[in-house]
Write a structure and sequence with these properties.
By secondary structure, the chain is α+β, with helices and mostly antiparallel strands. It has a single domain, classed as PH-domain like, CATH 2.30.29. Helix content is 40%, strand content 27%. It contains four helices and seven strands. Helix 1 packs antiparallel against helix 2. The chain is elongated, with a radius of gyration of 25 Å.
Length: 167
């Protein structure tokens, strides 16, 4: 991502590994079911091979999804970049942010991850979503600080003292 002059990165990250644990758990159940079906249809060895193959595919799919999702917040923009074979980039300016919401299910609260939905001004293709973010409150606090700094009036230059009177 190219930064414009005066712009700096305040957050850059990916979904937390903890956010995909439920995906891996469901994948393990699916692998077990596939293994049992394969074992009943052929033999125990075939069932184990099928179950292991399905679980390896699930592990790779979860890893790829996590690694190829990137969240960036700068002093001027929010950006979400996704995709393995194709790429989708969604971006908005910080001054267009109107609201945010943090969502955490009970398992997400226990794992200290959550989803941040950002509502933006105007009719864009959709609002931004940072999913699976570790400590979402701290990410929102960083954005709030950037917004507060951009809205603060500029500091006036120091006044020069009046010239000393001649004696």
């Amino acid at each position: 991502m190219d930064l414009s002059p005066g712009e700096s990165v305040i957050f850059q990250g990916r979904p937390s590994w903890r956010s995909i644990l439920s995906f891996y758990f469901l994948g393990l159940l699916a692998a077990g079911a596939a293994g049992v079906i394969g074992g009943l249809a052929a033999s125990a060895g075939v069932g184990i091979a099928i179950g292991a193959g399905v679980f390896v595919i699930v592990l790779i799919a979860g890893w790829l999804k996590r690694v190829f999702t990137k969240y960036t917040i700068t002093t001027r923009r929010l950006r979400v970049q996704r995709g393995v074979l194709t790429r989708q980039i969604q971006e908005t300016r910080v001054d267009r942010l109107q609201d945010h919401a943090i969502r955490q299910t009970l398992p997400e609260r226990l794992l200290r991850v959550g989803t941040i939905d950002f509502a933006t001004a105007g009719e864009e293709a959709g609002d931004l979503r940072f999913g699976g973010i570790a400590a979402p409150e701290s990410v929102v606090a960083k954005i709030d600080r950037v917004i507060a700094q951009s809205e603060a009036p500029p500091i006036p230059p120091a006044a020069t003292p009046p010239p000393a009177a001649a004696e």
